[in-house]
Design a protein that fits this description.
246 residues; alpha/beta; TIM Barrel; nine-stranded mixed sheet
Amino acid sequence: MIKPGRIHSLESFGTVDGPGIRFVVFMQGCPLRCQFCHNPDTWDVNKGNEYTSDRLFEEIIKYKSYMDYSGGGVTFTGGEPLLQAEFLLEVSKKCKSKGISVALDTSGFILNNTVKELLDYTDLVLLDIKNYDPIVYKTVTGVQLSPTLKFLDYLKEKDIATWVRYVVVPELTDNLDSIRKFSTYLDDYPNVEKIELLAFHKMGEYKWKELGIDYQLTDTKEPSKELMEQVTKILATNGKVVTSNI
């Protein structure tokens, strides 16, 4: 029997985590410690609320008409949803049996047989690649970049639709030479349909303080419109679709 999932929160009418209207499930637990994380309260996998796969699916199915009308579906995010891949596999099977599209928002840090089976039931992956420079990536996240690039290779092999997400943080992830190399690298991945540029913000800073965690980006400013336009122009080479939240 599949053990219950640990869930941080649910959002019934999400519009920024995949196409259409999404039922967004924020899973509890994450192996990364990103400096700009706005949900550090999702890090601990032992916190959150327990849901059985049936209970969660009952919540999701309530909104199917909105999903169908808008071309939406369900998005599993976090935290890192793949820490609970077995639970999500069970829920995703139920969703797909009712014609509900499934998206995963992940760092791509975890790839095992259960994750691979889950990807068989996944229509879209929102792949968060925090930086293309391995040294900067380790500084930003606390883990190695290589598992994420292997994950991207697997998505290409299985031809799974992918949107790459990249957060622009001044003086941390805004090195234009590194971004140019990243753009060239992505040219070899036809499954990458879009790149979503996300401007750094500090809306989650208060959570770090409440949890007693040192927030290193207090003095970091949000990226300018000019910087976001520069990065967009670089990543849009060779016809890539790039969107930005500025």
